[in-house]
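Dear all,

This email documents one entry for the complex benchmark we are building for the journal club exercise. For each entry we list the sequence lines for every component of the assembly. Then comes the predicted three-dimensional structure of the complex as a token string, followed by one or two observations. Please use this as the template for your own entries, and keep the labels exactly as they appear.
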Amino acid sequence: MTVPFRHPDAAGLDRKLAGLDVADRLRAIRDAVPGRLVLTTSFGAEDQLLTYLVAESGLDIELATLDTGRLFPETHDVWAETERRYGVRVHAFHPDADALQELVASQGINGFRESQAARHACCGLRKVEPLGRALEGAAGWITGLRAGQSATRNDAAIAQIDPARNVLKFNPLLDWSRDAVADFLADHDVPRNALHARGFVSIGCAPCTRAIGPGEPERAGRWWWEQESHKECGLHLGPDGRLIRATVTP
Ligand code: SF4
């Protein structure tokens, strides 16, 4: 059985990383964590920035994605272009086939719209369980989470423990703005999901993502039929182990 790596001083590491630029943060994370490091990507702007830096630096950081089975074709396109451009393979984690067959048989192909419980069951099966497999045996998990994406993400840290998954979690773009990320991608000619140019900011599964209008919060286009206070997908947990909700302030 793999014994998960435990870092005794996530807070100290967080303070150290805060003073570095993002490329140096990734190097320092690699130096500090003696085990597998996994960057999970949904091919959004932030994840593309981090993937570029990992590919350019040659750091030993694995790339993984959750292919839910409901992604946009544009997401698959930027996935393929990213692999081609950087000569990398992004390891895909799919939902368990038998469990998915049972879910669709019981709730229908778009049953996630019927209730919050049905939606959570779908996210649990298509995202959360595969994420667990992606992080199995990993010592550290790197994400593209930014504090500006939601009010509750302000509580996140650049380095923190994910209490449920027992890994060190790193958010090296936590203090970046959406505009700074966009500028970086343009300056470095990084492949972008074509949907960004059509008003899609936070891009997830096709039936659960819409474009947002001027002035709308970044994640307003996710699960828009649910109350803001109930939006969550189960991937990100706060320091207290509770779900980071996608409630967003303008
Ligand atoms: Fe299912 Fe929508 Fe969650 Fe994707 S975002 S896993 S389609 S409920």
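Observations: Residues 1-5, 245-250 have pLDDT under 50 and may be disordered. The beta strands are 37-40, 62-66, 91-93, 140-142, 159-162, 167-170.
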